[in-house]
Amino acid sequence: MEKDSETTDLNPLSRGVAQAGVRITNERTVLTLLALNPGASNADVARLSGLGPQTTSRIVGELESRGLVIRGDVLRGRRGQPATPLFINPEGALAIGVEIGWRHVEVLVLELSGKTLTSVRRNYAWPDARTILDEVAAEVASILSGLTDLQRSRLAGIGVASPSHIHRNIDLVDAPDDQAALWRDIDLADRLAKVTGLSVEWFNDGTAACWAEFIAHPAPRPVDFAYFQIGAFVGAGLLAKGELWEGNGHAANLGSMVVCDGHGNPTFVHLVASIMALQRALTSAGIAVPDGSPSDWDWDALEPVASKWLDDAGRALANAIINTRAVIELEKAIVDGAMPRAIVTRLHESVQHHLAALPLLTDDHPSVEIGHLGAEAAPVGAAQLVLFKRHFSRAWKLFST
């Protein structure tokens, strides 16, 4: 069935199939079309999806009965029958996002609209495998106790974001020797599901943060970009041709790219552009490392070490961006971090400076932008991915058009 030419401006996402056994696929198609085209009518959705008007009307009615779709006021004064605009219910579903990071844990609850209802964040020296899951479960229980019965009935589950293979690198945050063995045997999704009684899905923290940045980006969303989140180490993600690169657990581990340090010696982006690298530089300079989150530090007190770190980090990230561009056609690179926005801005300027100094061969350098979410990107993205996989079309590469 060909799409009606009158609806080409409504951003079609995917074609539904009106036959038994594909109800969920058709529901996801309708929901995604409404997410992309708020206010579309039943007739608009039918034309865009390829479903018949009666099938579309039945699906919309079912979604409305479950609280996922709401109707606006009837639009009169147009040719033909008055049309009723349809919208995604911003409160129609919720998910819990959890980030277990190298230096902090965060638990939040997110509505379908993207609004965070509540969030709890705690810093620590390193993630303790003996206690962290019970602590997360306690925060989840506290969050659930504050939800209404209706909200709890609309909870899609938990998305948990963490670095991949924590056991391999936990010694870098000076954790006790036994932590590596303890983390080696932990399946975060399985263990968290058992202690909370909810469905849980695990995501690499850089991947989750990249997805959150994708959703936060104003339309038209980029379909090819590399994402760098500067935290204890460098979280990273890739969106290629509109699809999120999840890999086999490592995700887009751009922080492990080999670059040269300020002395020309080979090293990893993680060891140059991370907060961990800054902390080690401060210690070497005899400056006390501040407590708490980098977003709360007095950065003026860290000079001149902070400026030197920003320069080194900008050089390393610029090299990582240009090397990634050699493999994947990048529309842009996005840099963000768990620092005050003024510091992220300085890092962005450093990346641009060093990128401009690199030679060109066959392509121009990609543009570089500052991210939208800062330190909250990973838990927000984990919750969003749960909602997306539960309710929306799998045609990710068309979701951004």
Give an overview in words.
With 401 residues, this protein is an alpha/beta fold. It has three domains: 84 residues, Orthogonal Bundle (Arc Repressor Mutant, subunit A), CATH 1.10.10; 135 residues, Nucleotidyltransferase, domain 5 (2-Layer Sandwich); 154 residues, ATPase, nucleotide binding domain (Nucleotidyltransferase, domain 5, 2-Layer Sandwich), CATH 3.30.420.40. The protein is built from 15 helices and 14 strands.
Strand order of the largest sheet: 5-4-3-6-7
Content of β-strand: 15-25%
Number of strands: 14
| Termini Cα gap | 21 Å
- Top-tier CATH class of the largest domain: Alpha Beta
Amount of helix: 25-40%
Question: Which key features would you list for this structure?
Answer:
alpha/beta; Nucleotidyltransferase, domain 5; 3 domains; 5-stranded mixed sheet; 14 strands; 18% strand; globular; disordered C terminus
Brief summary of the model shown:
With 401 residues, the protein is of the alpha/beta class.
Per-chain topology:
Elements: H1 23-36, H2 42-49, H3 53-65, E1 69-71, E2 86-88, E3 94-100, E4 104-111, E5 116-123, H4 132-145, H5 149-153, E6 155-162, H6 166-169, H7 178-184, H8 188-196, E7 200-204, H9 205-216, E8 225-230, E9 234-240, E10 243-244, E11 258-260, E12 266-268, H10 270-273, H11 275-284, H12 305-325, E13 332-337, H13 341-357, E14 367-370, H14 377-391, H15 396-399
Parallel strand pairs: 3-6, 6-7, 8-13, 13-14
Antiparallel strand pairs: 1-2, 3-4, 4-5, 8-9, 9-10, 11-12
